[in-house]
Amino acid sequence: MAELEEELKSQIIESLNLEDVEIGDIETDAPLFGAGLGLDSIDALELIVMLEKFHGIKIDDPSQGKDIFESIKTMAKFIRAHKA
Question: In terms of Cα–Cα distance, which of 83, 45, 81 is closest to 65?
Fold first, then answer.
C-alpha cells in the first residue's frame, strides 16, 4: 500500500515539475489542491494524463477528478480499484 503511495508522490513531483518538493514533503492524507500541496486546475489535467501514462487508467468523467485527486490516499485507492 505504502509503495503505491510513494510511487504516486514521485510521479506527481516529476509530472508537475515540482522542483522544490521532496517525496517526504507530501503527506498521504493532505489535500492536493488548495491548502495542501496547492495544486490548481491545470495541475488536475496533468494528473489525469499521469494516471493514464503510468497506470493505464483513463478517467472518462472529469467531474470524478475532485474525489479521485483529493489526496495521495484517494488516488491510490482509485488506482487499486481500477487495476483489479
Answer: 45
Question: CATH number of 2-83: 1.10.1200.10, 3.40.50.300, 3.30.390.50, 1.20.120.80?
Answer: 1.10.1200.10
Mean pLDDT confidence for 32-51 = 90
* 65 or 20, higher pLDDT: 20
The H-or-E segment that residue 9 falls in is helix 2-15
pLDDT for position 34: 86
Sign of the CA dihedral with 52 first, then 82, 43, and 54 last: negative
- pLDDT (mean) for 42-59: 93
